[in-house]
């Protein structure tokens, strides 16, 4: 390195040497960055190829599992059909019809008072007390304590 520096000092001269050294340094930095980018791109492409191979193996395994499940399901259906073939057909038909008749579809729940926090009307307290309308909310523990049966002595 010292020999190269001495030759450059003699050939280029002391006035131009700092500017040439700066230029050579920037060019070397750019070259290093370019080489690093090329290496990174090559590594990315290799990883991408590995991921593609891994994806293909996983997809193949998933296809194998899917086909084995289909064959198992078809075997099960055949076994089920063979097992249920000897049963009385009228029993299954009547049970199917009763389940269809007992199935009731209820409408979606809608709270009876849409705006229950808003005061609905001016009902006097004496009227509420006479008719048993709750005017204050009780916590769960207070409700249990209030309505717990009393012990007899």
TrEMBL record:
Localization (cell): Membrane
InterPro entries named among the record's database cross-references: TatA/B/E
Mode of membrane association: Single-pass membrane protein
Chief localisation class: membrane
Pfam families noted in UniProt: TatA_B_E (PF02416)
Keywords from the named record: Cell inner membrane, Cell membrane, Membrane, Protein transport, Translocation, Transmembrane, Transmembrane helix, Transport
Organism domain of life: Bacteria
Protein name as annotated: Sec-independent protein translocase protein TatB
Natural source organism: Pseudorhodoferax aquiterrae
